[in-house]
Amino acid sequence: MENFRTSAFMALLALVFGFLGAATWQMTLGNGMTRSWMIENPEILHDLADAYDRKQARERLADIADDVNTPFPGAVLGNPDGKVTLVEFTDYGCTYCRQSREHVDALVRANPDLKVVIREWPIFEGSDIAARMALAAAKQGKFTAFHDAMFRLGPPSEASVQQAATAAGIDMEQARLVMASQEADIELAKNMGLARQLEFTGTPSWVIGDQLLQGAVGEANLAQAIAEARGS
User: Fold this and answer.
1) pLDDT (0 to 100) of residue 48
2) Are residues 64 and 194 in contact, defined by beta-carbon separation less than 8 angstroms?
3) Cis bond before residue 204 (omega within 30° of 0)
4) What is the SS3 assignment for 209?
5) I need a surface site. Which of 21, 114, 128, 131 has the fewest CB within 10 A?
6) Distance CA 80, CA 72 (A)
7) What is the DSSP letter of 71?
């Protein structure tokens, strides 16, 4: 059991620091003082795991960060010229996305320099029509109004999407053209592809700086990630 624990621990160190760093640590583990210190300070494992997650996130974002952070025209909440960008992959049929909506609103109010890029990722049944209408709303400069109304009116259906569109004052004739367009097809396919490259498994999922977060992580965690991305 002792050998197993040591091997597992060294495997984690290898992932974080690389094999060279792990080899160095392996030599120091023979020192009783160092080993005792590690046992008395197990929180370092959390720090190591966090560092490893950040490294993995940077690697996944390396070639696609610009695509992830560049919104579909108009699909933005908060300050469209903000210096700090929070990206949310969302679905109108997702309960946790609905719960996170108030957190995003609070973050926008607290951070005038925050740009929230919404990536429509309709993975729940019936969500595709709502996502397409959201893209149409974005083209008309009415994305925020539709986004809010859609979550307020409940799970997506033809009726709720129509109600949300009416509440947002959307020109339906123009909206139908966008919804059926190749542009909308490409955007939704792109978002799915980006989500898969980032290894997201569901909504909501978030990108902020070099961090990837999944689930309804809460306002506090998002605020911390925003502060770190800002460099404060």
Assistant:
1) 67
2) yes
3) yes
4) coil
5) 21
6) 12
7) P
High-pLDDT (> 70) share of the chain, %: 77
Helix (H) or strand (E) holding 153: none
Residues 6+ apart with CB under 8 A from 206: 86, 87, 88, 89, 212, 213, 214, 217, 222, 225
- Kindly tell me if the per-residue pLDDT of 22 is higher than 50: no
117 Cβ contact list (under 8 Å, min separation 6): 68, 69, 70, 71, 75, 76, 85, 86, 87, 88
Interstrand relation of 84-90 and 76-78 (parallel, antiparallel or unpaired): unpaired
* Residue 92 scores a pLDDT above 80: yes
Q: Which pTM was predicted?
A: 0.79
Neighbours of 47 (CB within 10 A): 11
**Residue found by looking up tokens 């004052």 in the block:** 169
Q: Candidates 3.40.50.720, 3.40.190.10, 3.40.30.10, 3.40.367.20; correct CATH number of 66-230? A: 3.40.30.10
Cis peptide before 71 (omega within 30 of 0): no
Please give the structure tokens belonging to residue 125. Answer: 């049944």
- Type of residue at 186: I
Which residue type occupies 106? A
